[in-house]
Amino acid sequence: MTHTPSTSANTRLSLPTGDGHHVEATFGGPLDAPATIVYLHGPLGGSADYAAVGLELDSRLDATIAHLVYDQRGHQPTHAGDAPTMEQLLDDLDLVLAHASGEIILVVSSLAVIVVQEWVFRHRHHQLPVAGIVTVAPTTDLPRRRDNGAVGSRQYTLATVTSALVTSGSGGCASTGGVDAAMRLLSSYRGGNADLAVVEEILRQTPTWVLSGRDDPVAVPARVLDFADRVWAEVAIIDTAAHNLARAHPCAVADTILAALRVAHDTARYRAAP
């Protein structure tokens, strides 16, 4: 079940996929909103992670923008089935984005940045359908082996990432089931084939923001700053903050999203000018 961050009237969407799955999403806010914030949570998270962020945005903007949230399939700690493939995650994201209105700001957490990298690569021959991307505690390092056995550019100890996620994810689900679910899911994240050099070049042409915590055990500052530098992103590091910023620091996350909305608004006005 999804939880919308918007205080406006909500519309539940059950979106059928090509493989028989249904993406359960919630659209909150005006149907003709000038902008929609689409939230993409990370492993062991859920759509409820951004509830406080959405409330903060609505209080500042008088609920004039829309929010679109959904639970990524296979990402919950109670999930006991097979992990979704990367292609399924990308198909789901495309399906959800098609239901956004106005300028779209994509907000993505944690290791789900890898999903966005693969999504950007999928659309490399077309204009991205988003006006900006906000990454929260972005984590792009993950063990990834090519067919020849060589270790690729996403390098991190899988056990370390899993341990940190189960202790900092939604509800702090440090359980055997949570660990097992995380291990299956993170293994499926290795199923992508994006050329990261191409992805970074596209992101340099897309307004991008990075927000992270100095005490984050997963998105460590050195890696976060390197990622921000490679994609020319605006970056802010919160002192004494850890991984789950949307829950612990919703005002800071809202500030970053507002910066993205301002750029999207100015860009749209420039395009509309005679």
How would you sum up this structure, described in words?
38% of the residues lie in helices and 18% in strands. It contains nine helices and eight strands. Helix 2 packs across helix 3.
List the uncertain runs: 1-7, 143-157, 170-175
Task: Write down how many β-strands occur, each being a DSSP E stretch of 2 or more residues.
Answer: 8
Number of domains: 1
Profile the largest sheet: 8 strands, mixed
Which percent bin holds the helix content? 25-40%
Per the principal axes of the C-alpha atoms, what is the gross shape? globular
User: How widely separated are the two ends?
Assistant: 45 Å
**The CATH homologous superfamily:** Alpha/Beta hydrolase fold, catalytic domain
Named at the architecture level, the CATH assignment is 3-Layer(aba) Sandwich
- Helix/strand order: EEEHEHEHEHHHEHEHH
State the helix count. Answer: 9
Assign the CATH topology.
Rossmann fold
- What fraction of the residues are assigned to beta strands by DSSP? 15-25%
CATH first level? Alpha Beta
Query: Could you say which structural class the secondary elements and strand pairing correspond to?
Result: alpha/beta
Overall pLDDT: 83
**Rg, nearest Å:** 17 Å
Strand order of the largest sheet: 1-2-4-3-5-6-7-8
